[in-house]
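CORE FACILITY INTAKE
Project code: CF-77B
Contact: R.S. (postdoc)
Sample description: multi-component assembly, two entities in total
Requested service: structural model of the whole complex
Turnaround: standard
Below are the sequence entries exactly as provided by the requester. Do not edit them.
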Amino acid sequence: MVKDLSIQELEKRFQEKIDKDIKIEPNDWMPDDYRQTLIRQISQHAHSEIVGMLPEGNWITRAPNLRRKAVLLAKVQDEAGHGLYLYSAAETLGADREETIDDLHSGKAKYSSIFNYPTLSWADMGAIGWLVDGAAIMNQVPLCRCSYGPYARAMVRVCKEESFHQRQGFEIMAHLAQGSPEQKAMAQDALNRFWWPALMMFGPNDAESKHTLQSMNWKIKRHTNDELRQQFVDVTIPQAEMIGLTIPDKDLIFNELTGHYEFGEINWDEFWNVVKGNGPCNKDRIDTRKKAKEDGAWVREAALAFADKRQKRKSA
Amino acid sequence: MSKKEWPLWEVFIRSKAGLNHKHVGSLRAADAEMAIDNARDVYTRRSEGISIWVVPSNQITASDPTEADALFEPANSKIYRHPTFYDVPDGISHM
């Protein structure tokens, strides 16, 4: 009987399942640290999807034409959906949804730092779709094989939907880059501002990443931060060259021997400063989320009251 | 402000006529009607379905994973339930 086994034996059997690539499902026994690591990662991922709607939402009403507007609206709606899949996945681990959201609002839970940068021009919609969603896809594709079933399944849905996000962003950049000198300058400026924060999205260097080793043993993570970052750089640089934009990195060179690009030092002080809450938009993002929750409280209560009334009428 | 949350619903989608409904995930909604509407928005934005079921999550009874070995063991030992258990002589067809 599994119920009578010691913790050591349960942990051994758990790791054997992981090693055999057998998925873990919500009601299966799992070590508490595995559960907590997943709740932290999945809820932060969910928060990133939701906060990530804000920089792009900023441009919906000012999209240059109806096609661009419809596309951007669909993309931002997808991000809301991704947040919901992920909050639901976190709930299967016993996380309370409202508490999870309150942790975001209190600053206890983090979200991707990239969303603490402002979107100053229309070209930023291009840079975000191309670079930010591009980096997110690099991170998320391996998560489709994550050991925790509900997270892996949510990622399969997210990745299917995400590929249009990157293409629409690249299309915006390519169009601007082939437009007037002012339009091309606008695209270049967006690339200049988003390139380095996009590289930071993969997280600290492997030597500094305290969760990587355990997460890899548990097959939550399949590649290290630096491996994914390199992969992103290698595929993105030829795309920039193709549309005639310049990567803002004077140290960038292609190493013929390794077949990889070598890039300059990331400004980690900036990264940690933004993580700690001092980025250009941290306060604004959280204030907006808090206001949305508070202003919507009466709607959620009214919906419950209405559901209650309808139920009573049915049973009367 | 009330602490009461909208209840959790499990969502099942029939992707096309002739196929069974399949579990796709969960969501929160005040009542069943809203759960259907939300499921439409959350799980069928790209024509993934033609029919939706929603079931309150707390109404689902699941088998206990720690009892799985004992529960499913009888199926493992009865290999004669599979057609490959039987020898069919050469020359016999349509079987």
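Facility notes:
- DSSP finds two helices and three strands in chain B.
- The beta strands of chain B are 8-14, 22-28, 51-56.
Invoice: internal transfer
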